[in-house]
Design a protein that fits this description.
There is one protein chain. By secondary structure, this protein is an alpha/beta fold. It has a single domain (17-260), classed as Rossmann fold. Helices cover 26% and strands 25% of the residues. It has an 8-stranded mixed sheet, sandwiched between helices. A 3-stranded antiparallel sheet has the order 1-2-3, with no helix packed on it. A hairpin with a 4-residue loop joins strand 6 (138-143) and strand 7 (148-154). Helix 1 packs across helix 3. Bound molecules: S-adenosylmethionine. S-adenosylmethionine binds next to helix 3 and strand 5.
Length: 288
């Protein structure tokens, strides 16, 4: 599905973690938590599975491949939960394709430390750990059951996304890359442009962050945003749907990747081509 153009390999840095008294990990590099200390499974289910209405959509899905894209794979908890739902609903003949982007992959040892937090997912973590790749940039494909493929894109999310073929067509996005205020290198307009480029009409998105600038940026790129109740002490979360305004003067149409290539009208147009009611619009003939 995705076509990787870059083949440069680089060793990436594992995250610098400290472990809180509650037994939960904390990112020293980003000065932020990985997930809520009180109920990470409940939080991930509320924000991402419910925020993207995955249960209902998985149930009624009749096409070949349902694709989820995640920014910030971390421990893989966000991946293992929808995988479980997908397998429960047992889709014969269709597949869950999960593309996750991660710039600071956990080491094998760190992954095992995280996995101890959820004994109920020990089998799932065992399968993930068996195939979990070394911290080397690029795309690593893991097969986790006949109907689930996990593509781990290691490296900076915006850079890795720019290497993906447009046809990847994501059905649902999980945005989980720490809060925008602490990770401005990630949450910039280029990333949001990539989210839009890899989305189709009806693609959904869910995230914890309701930061105003971030929402405005999503909106100007074609995402219709809605604030929903957050999980636990968090008042809000964000759910969005990609519904670009396709009219010619919209912001969406002005984005460079949506503009038609500029070309000159053909020279020496034969007289009989100049049919009344036809005009030359950039690269195509339009019949009015
Ligand atoms: C809140 S944690 C994600 C938790 C994760 N979803 C889970 O289920 O454990 C945020 C993740 O975003 C990653 N990240 C931060 N900046 C990034 C970037 N520029 N590109 C890709 N991943 C990034 C961090 O390394 C970290 O693993």
């Amino acid at each position: 599905m995705g076509r990787i153009l870059s083949t440069q390999l680089m060793k990436l840095k594992n995250p610098n973690l400290s472990w809180q008294e509650s037994g939960h990990p904390y990112s020293v590099d980003f000065d932020d938590i990985y997930f809520s200390a009180s109920d990470p499974v409940g939080e991930s289910t509320h924000v991402f599975i419910e925020g993207n209405k995955l249960r209902q959509r998985f149930k009624s899905f009749e096409e070949k491949v349902f694709t989820v894209g995640e920014i910030g794979f971390g421990s893989g908890l966000n991946f293992l939960l929808p995988r479980k739902v997908w397998l429960e609903l047992s889709h014969r003949g269709s597949r869950l394709h999960y593309l996750a982007f991660e710039n600071h992959p956990l080491s094998h040892k760190q992954l095992l430390q995280f996995s101890k937090l959820w004994p109920e997912l020990s089998n799932e973590y065992e399968s993930l750990a068996e195939q979990f790749p070394a911290e080397c940039s690029g795309c690593h494909r893991l097969f986790l059951g006949d109907s689930v493929i996990l593509d781990l894109h290691f490296g900076d999310a915006t850079y890795r996304m720019a290497n993906l073929d447009h046809r990847a067509g994501i059905n649902a996005w999980y945005l989980d890359g720490f809060k925008p205020a602490n990770n401005q290198n990630l949450w910039h307009k280029s990333l949001i442009n990539e989210l839009a480029r890899l989305s189709n009409k009806g693609t959904t998105l869910a995230t914890y962050s309701v930061a105003g600038e971030f929402r405005r940026s999503l909106k100007s790129t074609g995402f219709r945003c809605q604030k929903l109740n957050g999980f636990g002490p968090k008042r809000h979360m964000l759910s969005a749907i990609y519904e670009p305004d396709l009219t010619l003067n919209s912001n969406y149409a002005q984005e460079p990747w949506n503009k038609l290539p500029i070309s000159k009208p053909p020279q020496n147009i034969a007289k009989d081509c100049k049919t009344p009611g036809r005009i030359w619009v950039e690269a195509v003939w339009l019949t009015l």
